[in-house]
Each structure stands twice: as structure tokens, then as C-alpha cells.
Amino acid sequence: MSYIKVFTDGASKGNPGEAGIGVIIYDVNDFIVDSCREYLGTATNNQAEYKALIKSTGMIKNLIASGENDFESIEFYSDSELMVNQVKFDYQVKEPELALLNNKFHVKMKKLGIPYKITHIERALNKAADRLANEAITNKNI
Asked: What is the domain extent for residue 28?
């Protein structure tokens, strides 16, 4: 079965502070099929983590629309233990802004209609997405 791997990361300098996101999407052969970095302005680290995950859903939608990538499932990876466990409904989402972002992700995934799983990984395994998120803050996408 063909799948894509999506690595997401959010960063915030100050929490809340200047924030950015990084997303990298790999095909089943570990080739990068898409990536992005985006400056968010002011956000908390947890908000940035969610916004990176949500951004990835739009990127996935674009891959589907292009017809160039054929995949049947999605594997998301993030070093945010809180977000991963909230998305999996293993943790309650107590903060209202995060609850809205969590819901937004689930709505977008339901619309995509593609089976997925989300896995917490160590920060060391998420260096590329982390680098993009921090570059977004440093460069402010200019």
C-alpha cells in the first residue's frame, strides 16, 4: 500500500512570541514531494504545532489535486507529544484555541477521506521540519 510521510513542526520564540512552521512531505521512497516554511507572527508553541499540522492538510489536498502522487494513506510525525496525544484523543484539549485547531484538523482530514495515523517522535528525528520552522521565524518569509 502506498503512503506519504508528513513531518510537521512549530516553533515559537517567547511562547507566545514570534512563531513559524515547517512541513516536509515524503513519498514512500523517502523522496521529498513538498515542503514549506511559514512565518505566523505571534503564537504559542502549541498553536504553531497545530498550525503546521493543519498547513500540511492543504499541501496534501494540493498533491491529490495534482494527480502526480498516488497514495492510499498518510503517516503524520511530530515531536509535540501534547498535540499528537490530543489529536488521537488520548489527552483532553483544555485550552479553547487548541480545541478549535484540533477540530479544524479533524474536519480537514474527514474531507480528505484518507486513512491516517499520527505518531510522536523524538525531536532528533524531526530536525528538517524544525529547521524550516526556525528559518521561517528568522527570515519572516521575506
From this structure: 3-139
